[in-house]
């Protein structure tokens, strides 16, 4: 069974005006698809072809790791946004964020600042640590917190290809607008499963 490109959870224009249809056509239709295709070409005919993406993320190296993680990371990123996103988290999630970050605003500030501070390409994550605490965690390139035993709850793609067509070099504009799209329910669902 080859790895497949999961369906985007909304229409290509659903995230406008914050993320354009044109960005999603390239980011999902070209970049995400290319990681799936490359992973399949790398594992074809090997024992890795029958592993899960999560196993490949935890155990593999080099090109297989990079492409498996990029497939997983993008799917997770799409699901962390919604056309009906933004606004305020539920009172339960709000309490959880206040307990860990002081306030929802401070949580947002930390994500934005870590995303701005990530040099080059990578991903800014909200993770649940082994002691149960929530933290912001940066990973470079294809990095994924599963590899270091953390539970991912949300991710923001800070590779330039995520924002260049809409924001050019202004990563901050992209990160500021991410809060208009955030799918709070996705964080809650991941917390519940963790
Ligand atoms: Mn990307």
What does this structure look like?
The protein is mainly α. It has two domains: 21-79, Fe,Mn superoxide dismutase (SOD) domain (Helix Hairpins), CATH 1.10.287.990; 91-193, minor pseudopilin epsh fold (3-Layer(bab) Sandwich). Helix content is 49%, strand content 11%. The chain contains eight helices and three strands. It has helices spanning 21-43, 53-59, 62-79, 91-101, 104-117, 164-167, 171-178, 184-193, and strands at 122-128, 134-140, 151-157. It has a three-stranded antiparallel β-sheet with strand order 2-1-3. Helix 1 packs antiparallel against helix 3 (62-79) and helix 2 (53-59) packs across helix 3. The longest helix has 23 residues, at 21-43. It is globular and about 50 Å long. Residues 27, 31, 74, 157, 159, 161-162 line the site of manganese (II) ion.
Can you give me a brief rundown of this structure?
With 194 residues, the chain is mostly helical. It is built from eight helices and three strands, in the order αααααβββααα. The chain has two domains: 59 residues, Helix Hairpins (Orthogonal Bundle); 103 residues, 3-Layer(bab) Sandwich (minor pseudopilin epsh fold), CATH 3.55.40.20.
Describe the SSE topology.
Layout (H helix, E strand, L loop, with lengths): L20 H23 L9 H7 L2 H18 L11 H11 L2 H14 L4 E7 L5 E7 L10 E7 L6 H4 L3 H8 L5 H10 L1
Helix pairs in contact: 1-3, 2-3, 5-7
Bound molecules: manganese (II) ion.
């Amino acid at each position: 069974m080859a790895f497949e490109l999961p369906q985007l959870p909304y229409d290509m224009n659903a995230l406008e005006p914050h993320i354009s249809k044109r960005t999603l056509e390239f980011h999902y239709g070209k970049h995400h698809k290319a990681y799936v295709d490359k992973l399949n070409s790398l594992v074809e005919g090997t024992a890795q072809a029958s592993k899960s993406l999560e196993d490949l993320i935890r155990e593999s190296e080099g090109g297989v790791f990079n492409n498996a993680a990029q497939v997983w990371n993008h799917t997770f990123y799409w699901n962390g946004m919604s056309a009906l996103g933004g606004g305020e988290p539920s009172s339960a999630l709000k309490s959880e964020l206040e307990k860990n970050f002081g306030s929802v605003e401070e949580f947002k500030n930390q994500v934005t600042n870590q995303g701005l501070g990530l040099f080059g390409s990578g991903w800014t994550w909200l993770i649940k640590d082994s002691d149960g605490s929530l933290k912001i965690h940066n990973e470079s390139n294809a990095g994924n917190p599963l590899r270091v035993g953390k539970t991912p709850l949300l991710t923001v793609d800070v590779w330039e290809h995520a924002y260049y067509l809409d924001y050019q070099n202004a990563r901050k504009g992209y990160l500021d607008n991410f809060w208009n799209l955030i799918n709070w329910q996705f964080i809650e669902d991941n917390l519940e499963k963790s």
